[in-house]
C-alpha cells in the first residue's frame, strides 16, 4: 500500500482553510425590528497527524499514516446597530444565545433613554 502522506495533509489543510472563513466568524446579518444584528462567533480548531513504519522478522513490513482535524464553533455575541448607535451584546458563557436575546429589551431601553437625553439637550 503506497501512502501519500503529503496529499493527506493537504486535504486536511484545505478543509481548515475552507472552514475558517470570515463568514464563519462573523455570521450573516439579520434584522430584529429596528435593529440590525450580526452574530460574532468564536472558532477553535485542532489538527493532528502522524505516520510510521515497522518491520517484523525478515518478510513482514508495515506502514501507516493518519491525519485529522476538528472545529468547534461557539457564539460569543452580537454586534447590534440602530441608526448611528452600535453595541456589542455578549452571549453569556453559561447561557449562550439565550443570554444575548434576553439583553435585547435592555438594549432597546438604553438606546431610547440615550436618544431622549440627546433630544432634551437640544431643546434646552
From TrEMBL:
Name of one Pfam family that matches: Spore_YtfJ
InterPro entries for this protein: Spore_YtfJ
Protein name: Spore germination protein GerW family protein
Organism: Flagellimonas yonaguniensis
Amino acid at each position: 500500500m503506497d501512502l501519500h502522506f503529503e496529499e493527506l495533509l493537504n486535504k486536511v489543510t484545505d478543509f481548515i482553510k475552507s472552514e475558517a472563513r470570515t463568514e464563519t466568524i462573523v455570521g450573516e446579518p439579520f434584522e430584529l425590528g429596528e435593529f440590525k444584528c450580526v452574530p460574532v462567533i468564536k472558532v477553535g480548531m485542532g489538527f493532528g497527524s502522524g505516520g510510521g513504519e515497522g518491520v517484523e522478522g525478515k518478510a513482514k513490513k508495515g506502514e501507516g499514516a493518519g491525519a485529522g482535524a476538528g472545529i468547534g464553533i461557539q457564539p460569543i455575541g452580537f454586534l447590534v446597530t440602530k441608526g448611528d448607535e452600535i453595541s456589542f451584546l455578549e452571549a453569556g458563557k453559561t447561557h449562550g444565545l439565550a443570554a444575548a436575546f434576553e439583553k435585547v429589551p435592555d438594549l432597546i431601553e438604553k438606546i431610547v433613554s440615550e436618544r431622549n437625553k440627546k433630544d432634551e439637550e437640544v431643546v434646552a
